[in-house]
Structure formats: structure tokens, C-alpha cells
């Protein structure tokens, strides 16, 4: 069974899990608007929550909107702090160069993922312990098998 946690909410319309076991609950637009090509807009959801301490909610794009229409979220994943009591808003961006995208009240514009989160105790030291990766990053291991084969 999927673990669940109670999240207090005030909402015009509750976020909804489309299927049992889904990680993301869809957030609905509380306003209508048209996103012109390349335009971004902050869209209200009518949802405010009180997360338990030790939890975070991430606001992330819906894949279908991204794949079919190029609609993404500027600050993905948007971070909703446990202490935040305001309305959850979604900063949508229409990345399509040609097609405007219309949003109506009630449309599912994003999804929210509620997760337990650790807070770090940052412990200053003079030197970090070694590791297999060391300081390599930013593509230090190459990009894909086929490409590394071609360029070799
Ligand atoms: O997509 C998002 C991201 C954030 N928030 C809300 C909840 C979050 O707790 C608050 C602040 O977000 P964040 O800390 O990412 O933004 P900031 O620019 O650091 O603002 P602040 O100075 O208020 O922390 O805004 C949203 O409604 N939607
Ligand atoms: Mg902040």
C-alpha cells in the first residue's frame, strides 16, 4: 500500500491523483488565460496547504503538456516550504515558437509531489573526504555510448 500523509488544505478544487500509486497530484488552474508563444505567466491554483514539519511539496510540469504543447514551469521544481500558507502558484512558460496555449479554469496545469525532506546540518571542515568521483562533473564521464564511439 502507498504510504500517505495528512496535508491540511483550503482549495477551490482539491489536487487529484489520476491513478492509485501516482506520485503527483494534479493542480487545477483557478484562472483562465492565454499563453502566447514564448510567454510566461504566474497562474493561481486556489490551493493553500499546511505541510507537516519535515515535508516539502514540489510543483513540477505535467509531461503531456510539455511533450504535446511545450508548456513547462520556469522554476521547476517549484519548492513549497512546510511553513508556507499562501496560495500555490505555478509559473508557466509556453516554449512553443508558434502556437499559443489557452488555459481554462479547472484545467490541470501542473502536479504536486509531497515528500519527506532532510534538513542538513552544514559542518565546516578544512578538507573533504576522498571519493571515487572526486571533482569530476559536468560531463566528465562522457555523454552516451554511441556518441563516445563516434568521436573516438
Ligand atoms: O512554484 C512555486 C514555488 C514556490 N511557491 C511558494 C511556496 C514557497 O514556500 C514560496 C517561496 O518559494 P521559494 O523559496 O522557492 O522562493 P524565494 O524566491 O526564495 O522566495 P522567499 O524569499 O519568499 O523564500 O513560494 C509557489 O507557490 N510555487
Ligand atoms: Mg526561499
From TrEMBL:
GO BP terms: dUMP biosynthetic process; dUTP catabolic process
Pfam families: dUTPase
Region of interest: Disordered: 133-152
Ranges where the dUTPase-like domain occurs: 14-142
Binding residues annotated for substrate, in chain numbering: 62-64, 75, 79-81
SUPFAM superfamilies: dUTPase-like
Molecular function terms, GO-annotated: dUTP diphosphatase activity; magnesium ion binding
EC number: 3.6.1.23
Isomerase recorded as keyword: no
Record-linked InterPro entries: dUTPase (IPR008181), dUTPase-like (IPR029054), dUTPase-like_sf (IPR036157), dUTPase_trimeric (IPR033704)
Entry keywords, A to Z: Hydrolase, Magnesium, Metal-binding, Nucleotide metabolism
EC class: hydrolase
Annotated pathway: Pyrimidine metabolism; dUMP biosynthesis; dUMP from dCTP (dUTP route): step 2/2
CDD domains listed in its UniProt record: trimeric_dUTPase
UniProt family annotation: Belongs to the dUTPase family.
NCBIfam families xref list: dut, PRK00601.1
Database matches in PANTHER family: DEOXYURIDINE 5'-TRIPHOSPHATE NUCLEOTIDOHYDROLASE
Function: This enzyme is involved in nucleotide metabolism: it produces dUMP, the immediate precursor of thymidine nucleotides and it decreases the intracellular concentration of dUTP so that uracil cannot be incorporated into DNA.
Name listed for the protein in its UniProt record: Deoxyuridine 5'-triphosphate nucleotidohydrolase
Lineage of producing organism: Bacteria, Bacillati, Actinomycetota, Actinomycetes, Micrococcales
Amino acid at each position: 500500500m502507498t504510504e500517505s500523509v495528512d496535508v491540511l488544505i483550503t482549495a477551490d478544487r482539491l489536487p487529484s491523483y489520476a491513478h492509485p500509486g501516482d506520485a503527483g497530484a494534479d493542480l487545477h488552474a483557478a484562472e483562465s488565460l492565454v499563453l502566447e508563444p514564448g510567454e510566461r505567466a504566474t497562474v493561481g491554483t486556489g490551493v493553500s496547504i499546511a505541510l507537516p514539519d519535515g515535508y516539502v511539496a514540489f510543483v513540477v510540469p505535467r509531461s503531456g503538456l510539455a511533450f504535446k504543447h511545450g508548456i513547462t514551469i520556469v522554476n521547476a521544481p517549484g519548492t513549497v516550504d512546510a511553513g508556507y500558507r499562501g496560495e500555490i502558484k505555478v509559473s508557466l512558460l509556453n516554449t512553443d515558437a508558434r502556437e499559443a496555449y489557452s488555459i481554462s479554469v479547472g484545467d490541470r496545469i501542473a502536479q504536486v509531489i509531497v515528500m519527506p525532506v532532510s534538513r542538513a546540518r552544514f559542518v565546516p571542515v578544512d578538507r573533504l573526504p576522498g571519493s571515487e568521483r572526486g571533482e569530476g562533473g559536468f560531463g566528465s564521464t562522457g555523454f552516451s555510448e554511441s556518441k563516445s564511439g563516434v568521436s573516438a
